[in-house]
Amino acid sequence: MTEIARSLHISKQVVSVHLRDGGRDPAARDGQSRRAERDQFAALWNAAADLGAAATALGLTECQAVRKAVWLRATGLRLKYMPRRPGLPSRGRRRRRSPRGCWSCTTGA
Predict the structure, then answer these.
(1) Residue spans per domain, the chain
(2) For residues 60 and 75, what is the distance between their CA atoms, to the nearest angstrom?
(3) What is the pLDDT of residues 3-22, one digit of tens each?
């Protein structure tokens, strides 16, 4: 759409109005490319054995890949949860600290 606007020396908004008036959807190509990108991400993510392999296949860092996966899951895309890496602590419940270390318990008040 930008190319059309440049060649005709008009704004993108005017091109969009003319396309819509002519029965075309100016945002259809953008939506299709986003869907294709999402589907490609899902295919690579779900085929990978672990997070490192998924990030490498996607050309992203592990942090970027996880953030994108979280965002896509929030939009409703079904993605597998990657297995935990060996050696990392479990995400179980934290134990509560005993009140002995609390300053209000040691003051005599």
Answers:
(1) 2-84
(2) 20
(3) 888 888 889 888 888 888 88
